[in-house]
Amino acid sequence: MDELDLLKKDWKKENQNYTQVSETDIYKMLHKNSSSTVKWILIIGIIEFMVWTGIGFFFNTDEYIKSIHAEEMMVYVESLTYINYVVVLFFIYKFYQNYVKISTTSSTKQLMKDILRTRKTVNYYVWYNLGMIVVSMVLGFIMGLLYNPKLTAVKDKIANDASNGILVKIICILTLATIIFVFLFWLFYKLLYGILLRRLKSNYKVLENSEI
């Protein structure tokens, strides 16, 4: 933003003719920067979708479900998977829409609205993914505890524990593991999209504080 700061300083000079040029230059720079940032959000979203899809092919959930004889859970897992694909593709489509709108807008007020809309879309996308991680982990824990034969001894201990102390400990451990896992993914998304969102926020503040 160094070039933008220089333009803003020159913009305050009394030379009216140069002021008009500076106004145009500032807007063009903000517009170009915002459009490029949203394009990268779209690209990263597509790459992320492809990576997770590829991981899903390498780690076959259906085979795991069959190995622990939890076939009755198959419909729930598949439904959750399809819903996730639809929702993620919807967000990618919204990223594309935001990119097109920001790239074609010629109004300062509209550019500000588009920046806010993009930031909200990305934030909703991140929170959706974090929520889906929680749902997936809880479902995986439940399936493992109910169906995995390797955990039969643990289930017997829980059944014979009148005070439910073992169950409480397991729930606490699984809750802690989920919190840590979600926190790590939150840091990942913070790094992945945080820089881009800060750029958009900076552009919005410049537009808001100036009279371009």
Structural features, described:
The protein has helices spanning 2-11, 16-58, 61-67, 74-104, 108-147, 152-160, 165-209. By secondary structure, it is mainly α. It is 87% helix and 0% strand. It has one domain. The chain is built from seven helices and no strands. Residues 14-19 have low confidence and may be disordered. Keywords: Membrane, Transmembrane, Transmembrane helix. The chain crosses the membrane at residues 38-59, 79-96, 125-146, 166-189.
Tally the helices: what do you get? 7
Low-confidence stretches: 14-19
Strand content: under 5%
Class from helix and strand fractions: mainly alpha
Q: How many structural domains? A: 1
Q: Classify the helix fraction into a percent range.
A: over 70%
Q: Overall mean pLDDT score? A: 83
Helices and strands, in order, run as HHHHHHH
**Biggest sheet features:** none
Shape: elongated
Rounded to an integer in angstroms, the radius of gyration calculated over CA atoms is 25 Å
Distance between the termini: 17 Å
Number of DSSP strand runs: 0
